[in-house]
């Protein structure tokens, strides 16, 4: 039994060492074109939190699980979390967040929010694809997310990008105890020559 405990401790020590040695997730800010419009895509920083919180409450008024303190905790964990914001004429119009689990090799989408007046313009798809390519470059295997059972529009978007239904979590959302549809995407290796438009 002591031998098994020692092996287990060795595994935990290796995981802990890797986690502490892991570098921050790096993202290079820049201009992007979506449709006919130019946007600034950059990593979210703590000063962006008031705008992110305001946008979150506007798009999901029933969801009170995200407050400024939660956003701050997420943004400060730069080794496992990556939040990208999209600005148009200096206005925050969208953001996406992901948790990169090095043990599961999974990127869990924590948040994707688009200003209503900018929805149905390919922005959500663009942000998801950006994280998909980023995850693939880091050799992650899957992406996962939860979506409200009644949010059929979002489910269709995720399905169109290759996400599959991965079961149901009952009473997932605290605000109204709505069920969540769990969705999963298997990250495929893409050849370099197919990546000209990244």
Automatic annotation (TrEMBL):
Q: Which GO terms describe its molecular function?
A: N-acetyltransferase activity
What keywords are annotated for this sequence in UniProt?
Acyltransferase, Cytoplasm, Transferase
Residues of the N-acetyltransferase domain: 40-188
Q: What Pfam families would the database entry show?
A: Acetyltransf_1
Lineage, top-rank taxon, reads Bacteria
Q: Which PROSITE patterns does this one have?
A: GNAT
The UniProt entry, under InterPro entries, shows: AcTrfase_RimI/Ard1, Acyl_CoA_acyltransferase, GNAT_dom, YpeA/RimI_acetyltransf
Family membership, please give it. Belongs to the acetyltransferase family. RimI subfamily.
This protein is called Ribosomal-protein-alanine N-acetyltransferase
User: Which organism does this sequence originate in?
Assistant: Liquorilactobacillus oeni DSM 19972
């Amino acid at each position: 039994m002591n031998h098994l405990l020692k092996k287990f401790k060795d595994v935990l020590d290796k995981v802990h060492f890797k986690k502490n040695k892991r570098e921050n997730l790096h993202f290079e800010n820049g201009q992007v074109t979506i449709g006919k419009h130019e946007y600034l895509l950059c990593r979210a920083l703590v000063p962006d939190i008031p705008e992110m919180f305001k946008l979150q409450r506007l798009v999901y008024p029933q969801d009170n699980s995200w407050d400024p303190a939660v956003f701050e905790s997420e943004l400060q964990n730069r080794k496992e979390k990556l939040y990208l914001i999209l600005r148009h004429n200096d206005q925050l119009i969208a953001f996406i967040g992901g948790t990169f689990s090095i043990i599961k090799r999974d990127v869990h989408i924590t948040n994707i929010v688009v200003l209503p007046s900018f929805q149905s313009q390919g922005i959500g798809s663009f942000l998801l694809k950006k994280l998909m390519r980023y995850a693939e470059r880091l050799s992650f295997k899957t992406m996962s997310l939860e979506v409200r059972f009644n949010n059929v529009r979002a489910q269709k978007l995720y399905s169109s990008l290759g996400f599959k239904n991965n079961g149901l979590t009952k009473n997932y959302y605290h605000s109204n105890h709505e069920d969540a549809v769990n969705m999963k995407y298997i990250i495929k290796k893409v050849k370099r020559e197919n990546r000209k438009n990244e």
